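Hi W.,

Here's what went into the run:
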Amino acid sequence: MIITCKKKIPLRWIAFAVMPWAAVTMQDRAISVAFLFSLKKFVENPAGLSFIISLSTFIGLAVGPITAFVSDRIWTRFGRRKPFLIASWTGTSLALVAMPLTPNLVSLVLAYFFYYFCESLSGPMEPLKQEIIPPTERGRATGLMAWFSNFATITFYFVMLGRFDDVSFMAGVPLQGEAVIYWSAALFMLTMLPIIVLGIREIDQHSPLRGQKISLQTFVGGLLDRELSPVYLLVFAFAAMNFYSGIGTLMNLLYTDQWGYTKQEMGINVAVGGLINVFLIGLLTLFADRLPRMRAYQTFVWLTLIGNFLFYAYVNFLLPDKRPTLVEIIAFGELLSVISILAGVVYYPLIYDYVRRNKMGTFSAGEQIVRRATVFVTANSVGLFVWAYANFFLPPAGPMTRVVLREEMSQSSVVAALQTKTWSTSTLLTAGPGGGVPATISVTPWRADGIATESSRSWEIRLRDRAGERLASEKADLERERTKLSVSTAAAEKNKVRLTVIAARSTEIDTHLATDAVRLRDDVLKTLGPSIIADGDQIIDAGMRDALVIEFATHERPERSEIEKILDLIRREAPEVIDLRPTKRDVDYGFALSATLANSQTPDALANKLQLVLKRAAAQPPTVQWATTIELVSLRQSPALGLELAILEDPVVTYVSPINRVVNAITGLFGKTPTPELRLEAVARILQSERPHIHVRVSAGRQKKTLAITTLLESGPIEAVTADDAIVRRLRTLLPTPENRIVAAARLLYDHVESAAAAQRLTVARPVIVSKYAPLRYDYMSGYLWMFLMCVIGISLILLFKRLEAKGVVYKRGLEESQAS
Amino acid sequence: MNPSSTTPLSAERPASPNHHIPGYARTKACVIFVGLLVAGLGFSQLWTPLRLLWRGESTIAEAIRVVKVIPGLPDLVLTTDPMIQAEVERRERSAVFWNEFRFQTTAGRTVQVRAPVGNHSRPLYPLVSLDGLPTVDRVCFDPTQPERAIFPLVVSTWLAPGMIFFCGLLATLIGSFLLYWADKPIELPHLPPPAK
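Here's what came out:
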């Protein structure tokens, strides 16, 4: 149905030729993502996991280029590229079928290596695709291929990956989710095999390279062919700019370590981007062959540089906390993704325009080597750059303490205050001349939300400590050795003696580092003395109120979103409302509404008012039906406890970035604008997740930077307070009754609020927030600076290539050959 | 197959020197046949859940407990989420957690069923959802035999048979395309003499 070397081909040929890329992508996802979980069945050690996975790179680098090179120099009755593909796809499918059946680590790793060996045999796939698709239609083909790949990726992440641990039944036979993933990928690939076997015919071009002796000399000579070597400039430039992954693997650390997003949120980012791309790629494909390739490629390269620079500037200079929201990440990610897709759609057809069909295999071999080597070097160099940047410009590794002052102070005032007294000799190991503040100390304002201000109440003080750094590094080495030695119970038993030594040394190091941090803390507390907040002063107020709890019954299950909508509306009309919580009754459902009772108000009056307010709120569109037909079940009074706590950050959102303003305006059309109290609502939800039936309200306090928390005092038993610390003493002073049970409840609430607020990047003030050994802090965004440099190098190489083309050193031999046929 | 100089055996008419006839109609028909067989196998496994989804009764079921099953050991019944958390497995692949649900039929009968999909590391659902109420899921069941129930929102109910059905259909489609063009001549390109 399809033959190679045609000058023009119908769209169905293109679709058929690139459709297998969906299966190739599905296989790739299975082997790169699902395999990690398969491996974890046998190996827990991360070093072992990454070592095994990294071996595949070497197999690919050794076998892939050779097969591509050989495919230019052979001819069989089935063609010169097809036999490799048939062997490759059959082999990878068999390996995938075997993987979930492997009983131990050795057989799993063997199957993995066999997979990669077979996968590397598909080196001639790209040359075959280019031989089928004439140069004038390669843009469309690349776009369509990207569409199929993207579709397979979304299916894998959305539908398949989460099913890895599932067990279901088919025809009465138990079926593991792991097997379903691998076998689906294998079946998908085998389904595509008839396209290659029966659907494509390679035309014999009587290549002069056919029968050439295959040796190291011919391999190197072939790769350095004078027709091909200038084209590697474009390959090198493309790989150095690393279009698709920005700062590479550091991007993941930027999301999780620096910005604090979860892997799930990262997945949402990928999935949302992927869904948008399904439509965008389809649209872009329509125009792909209408663009002048070299000019378009140069434009996209510049746009990539500009886009990345804008992202860098937006995060570093516009956002006060230097932390983009998921929406902003998706917005910029999508913009850059579209540019990179366009660049990719233009790039592959462009480089093959310069290559004749009989040398496509050889070029593909060289291209693989140059690309993989460049990515390897640039990916590692960005890591080195980030490391060097952190060493020169960021706070050093060493003992660290974060303290909170009574009033806001500027950095120079804090440094001046630190200089007023001589530090203890123990922390003066690296002190400056003549005593005073150690020369290698770093004083920076600190807030959990990352907003840096000129003056602050909370400060992070660090001491550069090379000896401590060496100890921390030794501990990390010991930890790696420990995981290696205890990979299984048998191994742990065998290496018992060494493991004991490691455990003892680790404890010794921990103690040493902790002691240094305590010394630093004591020095700082002694030096800053009266400027530091007193423990307990963070509790601005504590009190008791009477509250009313009204319970209703309903036949329908209240949905969380409906409850939240009603609660939001009720609180606007009746600020005394504490909470609205769903309840499970014997056969049906119910909910309880709580509110504080004013002195002059009777319970019945409040209950009547709240019922009316509740019904009005439920009736507002979209109407919540179940809440309009409720039955009052009971009415009871209960004591409510209130706390007001000083925090270091602003409790409500005070700055909305330009992108978020646009998004909020759009979501506002659907009545879903996020409130400034977003984080306070989240704190309340965390408190509720710990105790599902708790009634709690978290709001901004009366004073600036304070939190007000109101909760119903639970009637169940509460452990008596055993500690008599500053917080308990402060609570005893503030609460109207020193009753032990109430103080215990208040203390418990304080502890819960402190941890729940921390999860939302709100910090309850206290003299010392933390004191510990702190490793070197990295700013992964600095990797973008390196990326800009790479982009400039890439652009320079493209300009050099254009000069060579202008001089006639390189010209579009592939395109000319196609037009001549 | 890719014969370069011989006429395919199954071709209906010989190719002219400037044309190529793909041929191999019988082999391509076999691809269709195999595709239909695979799609049929997938559909046979989809039939029961599809029938219950379309023709069965549907309601909301509440999670009531989780049973942890390890071959050779007595089943462990877990009735609270903290109990489940304590039993969550990271490496023990022989353990399977099964969610059990309770629902009421329109006839008023209360039925307790085990979800047909389990999980090796943790139950598919916690017993209590974030809002403090029992976790619920949609269930479709046979009104005459309510114990025959499926949970249509559990992806694994559909995944394996769905993939088999999809791949079978795709193979049939590919085979049909190949067969349709099997006897249609394709003009061969005029290749210039190869450059050195």
